[in-house]
Amino acid sequence: MEIVRDQEISEPVSPSGQFLSNSVLSVSIIAVMELEEPFDDSPSIIPFLKDALLPINPHIMVLKLQMEMVSEPVSPSGQFLSNSVLSVSIIAVMELEEPFDDSLSIIPFLKDVLLPLPRFSSIMVADKDGVKRWKRVEVRLSDHVNFPVFTAGMSAQFYDGCFDEYLSNMATEQFPQSQPLWEVHVLNYPTNHAASNIIFKLHHSLGDGFSLMGALFSFFKRADNPSLPLSFPSVQLHTRKYGKNFSMFRKVPTFFSCVYSSASDFCSGIITSCLDKEAETPIRSGHSEVESLPVAITTITFSLDHIKQIKAKLGVTLNDVITGTIFLGTRMYMETVSQGSGSACSTSLVLFNTRMLKGYNSVQEMLKPDSKAPWGNHVAYLKIPIPKLGDAEATNNPIKFVMNARKIIKRKRSSIGVYLTAKYLLLVARFRGPNGASRCIRGTLENTSMAISNVSGPVEQVAFANNPVNGLYFVVTGAPQSLGAGVTSYIGKLRVALLAEKDFIDPPKLKSQIEKAFEMISEAACREST
């Protein structure tokens, strides 16, 4: 009788392996390597094959190749932000110092920076169970890069109008679902703000502001010294001021306060998404499908040093100052348009990144499986009541707008209400599908008056394709609200971009009131410090 050793017993072929290799179906993979030089030493490939391939368990090798063919599932938040109920995008504008004459030079940048990101070369498809997945497709860059043509030889004021109209139309247009969800627009015409502009429109399902802006920053080099890395403003993480002897008697009420705040914020968020609808005001039209109506985009520029002076005098954060300024200016605008509306019940959603980070990571770092700053959507929103003019006595003490905003945001950030809301959305999606969760988010947006989000830009001036960038700003489009604000810091300036419903909100008047509010807060801070 012949004795068969254990190691000589062949491993059974897996069921999937059998399904893919028989007389009915036989599937293979062809991989091509294009070498820079002739491969003259052909026999040298034998040792590589022997050392690299033969030790590999055939079963493991097949499994690995098969898994690479399976498309990556779209994250829950990605599905919530891209469907027939809600579709949200980000528009980022780069203002260049010089004309961007070599327009085709943008192609290599896109090919090297964006296309390696799987989501920028994928489309959303639904599997047999209705679950959306990212499917890799061949990307034709000509389908994503646009070079609009306007009348040549006109004034900067004329091109300002062309730019504003183009940006407004872009904000309300939907992406074609047959190609990856991003676009680049090169407007090589001088405006009063820039010699030329490059606009990126990126769907929010690709990632949050942190991820997408991190990808865009990968295009940049420092204008003063391209060999040095970009630097960003330092972020001060909040720490407790109490020592090790922090009394248990103070911990107990703090704990119960946190529990109460968390429960209150969670319940308030659910009620807002379903029932608590705000009244129509000068910043909330209440129009059906307002996200599809024409919009106007305008920007306001503040000195970052000036804001830091106010911040130091009041002992608050930079975000507290700018949020209080926007709140006060918005209330003053409401009052000028409709007397008494400055004291109406209005709320704002303030978006923030849930990653505990001090700066941006490279795209390669974000894509690592164990990254501390993973690519994706990691954002939450706080529902902040906008202080009323009567409550804050704006004309006498505008600082109260800053302090009230600080107090509410600090309390809400210390609660776990936003995380409970995220779990609730996942639960809704489980039983009612992604569209059900999207209806909850849409309800919250529709039933509030505005939203504010912010990102930090580089400290030093950067260049894109050796062309210095003079300005950066962004807005979020697709939200069913009449007003939104995007805040960006860059080279000593803080830019507030306002996206407003056209023919309902008066952007120049709103801009003027926010600028006036900033001066009022600055003067009040000087008086307070003296």
Automatic annotation (TrEMBL):
Chief location of this protein within or outside the cell: membrane
Keyword check for Nuclease: no
Family: In the N-terminal section; belongs to the long-chain O-acyltransferase family.
One cellular component (GO) term of this entry: plasma membrane
Topology of the protein relative to the lipid bilayer: Single-pass membrane protein
Residue ranges of every copy of the O-acyltransferase WSD1 C-terminal domain listed in the record: 375-521
GO biological process: triglyceride biosynthetic process
Reaction catalyzed: an acyl-CoA + a 1,2-diacyl-sn-glycerol = a triacyl-sn-glycerol + CoA; a long chain fatty alcohol + a fatty acyl-CoA = a long-chain alcohol wax ester + CoA
PANTHER family recorded: O-ACYLTRANSFERASE (WSD1-LIKE) FAMILY PROTEIN, O-ACYLTRANSFERASE WSD1 C-TERMINAL DOMAIN-CONTAINING PROTEIN
Record localization: Cell membrane; Endoplasmic reticulum membrane
Domain O-acyltransferase WSD1-like N-terminal: 163-322
UniProt-recorded name of the protein: Uncharacterized protein
The keyword Transmembrane helix is annotated on this UniProt entry: no
GO MF terms held by the record: diacylglycerol O-acyltransferase activity; long-chain-alcohol O-fatty-acyltransferase activity
InterPro entries xrefs: O-acyltransferase_WSD1-like (IPR045034), O-acyltransferase_WSD1_C (IPR009721), O-acyltransferase_WSD1_N (IPR004255)
Pathway terms, separated by semicolons: Glycerolipid metabolism; triacylglycerol biosynthesis; Lipid metabolism
Key words of the record: Acyltransferase, Endoplasmic reticulum, Transferase
One Pfam family, short name: WS_DGAT_C
